[in-house]
Structures are given as structure tokens and as C-alpha cells.
# Entry
Amino acid sequence: MDAADLLAAFAAAAERATRLPRRPDPATLLRLYALYKQARSGDAADAAPSLLDPVGRAKHAAWAELRGMSTDTAMREYIALVDRLAG
# Structure
């Protein structure tokens, strides 16, 4: 799959993710978020959100775990996860 095809497949998966048949569990939602952010923005910033923002901290931690993963790999994993969730 070339770069243009991968980007198109990623965009389609992001759209499908908004229409999943049922809401994924919290851990899967964090994984989707982290893969999406890694694919779109690269590595997470070093500074995590405030302790007063537990959801933001959980999202940041999930994203930071993917530090060093290439955008292509993140896109491919995101597509595969959405495909599994969509059935």
C-alpha cells in the first residue's frame, strides 16, 4: 500500500470509528485515541496534563506509550483495530 492509499484508508477508518456498532471498552478507546494521535501528530509531548485532569492524563499516558512508533505503523494498527471493532 503506497502512502496515498494508506492515508485514504486511515481517513476512512477514522470515519468508520465514529459509527461503530457498539462503544468500545475504555482501554480500547484509549488505544484508538493513542494510535490516532501518533499517526496524526507523532510522539506525545513530554509534559502530561495536570493531576486535576485524570482523563487527559490517561490519554497522554496511552499516547506516550507509543513514543517512537512510525506514523505509518500507527495508521496501519489503527486501521486494523477499527476493522476488528467494526466486525
Notes: The two ends are 22 Å apart (CA to CA). The chain has a mean pLDDT of 96. Helices lie at 3-17, 26-41, 54-64, 71-86.
